[in-house]
Batch of 4 targets.
Target 1
Amino acid sequence: MSSLHGNHSEKWKRALAKRLDLDLSRRIKTYSKGMKQKVAIIQAMMNDPELLILDEPTSGLDPLVQREFYDLLKHEQGRGKTIFFSSHILPEVERVCDRVGLLRKGMLVDIESIDNLKSKRVRKLELTLKEDVPQERLQIPGVEISRIDGRHIEVFVHGHIGDLMPKLAALPLEDVIFPEATLEDTFMKFYSGGKAE
């Protein structure tokens, strides 16, 4: 691939491989999933394109390589490059993107700034209680109950999590699982039936 783009591409390819810790002397079929992902990133970036289109580019990368990759993207943004970045992981999108386009059934339904999207962010929270409690105690502002299965409760949380914690602490909690916020949860809440109000 690099031979199609000349010497500049070859030098940049080697610099990218060094930054992403990729051994170019090995055959691709011997690479792990994460190593193959590095090859794909290098192929996308090595000819110094004005537009980068990246679909779930950090899948399979270890955290240190992910950090280096984010630094590379920031550098490219600083050089005036346009980057389309597809991901379902909200913290990753927040780290990399200025604006987010939301798709529904293959159509662009909205474009949001990161700050505006954060204000709409919906998080899923899973609670396990030590004892049964009346359902009225679970009626907490900013919390929407999505499922109750005995003492296991799944809720959607709207707004700032700091305001919610003292109210949750008043419940007889045995366990709390707070998965990473995803764009999918926000999308399903606000856009599955049409544009958010």
Target 2
Amino acid sequence: MRNSSDCILSLEGLLGLVDGRVPLLIEVKSTWSGNHAYEQNIADALGAYKGQVAVMSFDPECVAAFRRAAPSLPRGLISERFEDKHYWPDLSAWQRFAMRHLLTAAFARPHFIAYDIRALPGLAPGIARDVFRLPLLTWTVRSEADRANAKLFADAMIFEGIDP
């Protein structure tokens, strides 16, 4: 917050504050630069944590880097339709297609998929869930209609502004 003494916690600070009292689902942002050295630092910090924690990212290379850095750390691949090329300027049409259809899961090897509620039901997340038996989370559930859709097509929901 501007003009405040408040600051964003470091990952270590967050882990100390939570101290295993609730599970953590950490979204790791990407620069889409191909440099994935930071995943090892995150994995190292999470390695000593005693609580339940999982990481997830839109970037399949990031998810693959976590697989190499900490194979037992639960990791998820976040996806959506990727229709807005202006929102995803660093991605080619092919990359957006591959990510929308979860083709990148073949090398990312996630433990779960997190798919946009606005894109459910969908063929790719349905196949991931029903054929490959990957748990399917959906985001961001903000209404009763979203919740009803999530109940039909997902195993769990990431929600905001409603009681689950």
Target 3
Amino acid sequence: MFPITQTKTEFALTHKLIYAWPKVGKTTLAAQQKVGSKIPLFIMTEDGEGTLTIAKARVKDWKHFTKLVELLEKQAEKVKETYSCLVIDLISDLDQWCQESIAKDNNVKHVSDLSYGKGFNLAKEEFRSQLSKLMALLPVTFIAHSGEKDVIVNGETIKVQKPQLSTGAYDFVNGKVDTIMYISPANSKKDQSEVVIQGSKMAICGSRFPQINDTFLFPKDRPEQVYVDINNRFKGSEQ
């Protein structure tokens, strides 16, 4: 009577958040999400793809973004036939643009200028509405910059890496994605970046898929290898 859900066999077909400091490899990692002949479609808020060859749609503000969402919905079948997933790079820009759009529509400088939290609520609902439309169309990978958060552990204050998003945007994304991934910069010990999925004192991470709750090396000369490693582990086919 009701459809039975199918187990996902490709990591690209899941919702995820990737965050890191600039130029660490967020876009490079997201670009590896190919499924057969299908490739990711990037919704770019900045020209950060470097030397990558990707399919992209460039947006410049919130109104421009909502028009793109409408276009993708109208061409849903073609979009699903062509692309493996959608990549929003950067989700933090969309978060800011959404608030600016709400403020402009209500003739105020900032959403906080609207009384009783009305501005923040309007922005939150608009953000949720548009992003939910995309997530209903294809799996979405959100990309954000990294920031730091002070956390008290056993009476000691430590700094934890966290996505740079407003509380409302983070709550929405965190509630929707299957996996949160942090890419650490190269360090002197290994001189390689790492994709961190297992949550720790270092970074806010985690996945609903226990087989990938781990840390994966991200080699500079073979950036595609980390995605292969994660995808193989996800599918349970690691050798």
Target 4
Amino acid sequence: MTTDAQADSYPAWSPDGTRIAFDSKRATGERNIWVLEADGSYTPLTKDALADGYSTWSPDGKRIAWAAGPVGSREIWVMDSADGSHRKRLTSGSDDLLPAWGSNGLVAFERKAGSSSEVWVVDPGGGAPTARIRLGAGGGGDPAWSPDGKRLAFARRVGGIDRIYVVNADGHTGLRLLTNGACKCTDPTWSPDGKQIAYSGPGEPTRPVLIIPAAGGSSRRLTIDGLAPGWDN
């Protein structure tokens, strides 16, 4: 789907399945947000040296949230998905990345906290960010909303091992571990019907993409090598 010599990463399908946002160092050598259009052309949405990445679409497809800034001081921003206009900063003063825009209108994101991380939530319409999954028992990262906006999948590191969990939207009830063993599991993403979760699994030097029932069960490998899966609607 992309053939540029520079690295392309973190693809995200638009809600209508016609466009793919991704981050790339193409054209300028700086990491920016691009969109692969339905006709095969590419539209740059950011053109700066702020290390832009980790894009996610609003439920109506009209806006994109992303993280911008150097490691240690990244911030969550939103912009129009058509041309990158009407930019608005949602967070500041911390190190925030990996935003996930839910059907409930909220943006969940990972906030680095020392050597660990927490999952926070912010309303793009206004208001201060609030913590949902705090430190303790490994904290949490890589958040992903279920299609109905009622649950969060996330990765949690306990004893040096990353595993995938699911929790209710409040961040503390209904907590369930999905993956077991020495997993090194990250990047969860929900199927459109909310019944399965794809994720990056263990392996060195390559890592496979696997899927597992959201209600729990056995996982199934989809690829030999791959990271940051994104599920089309």
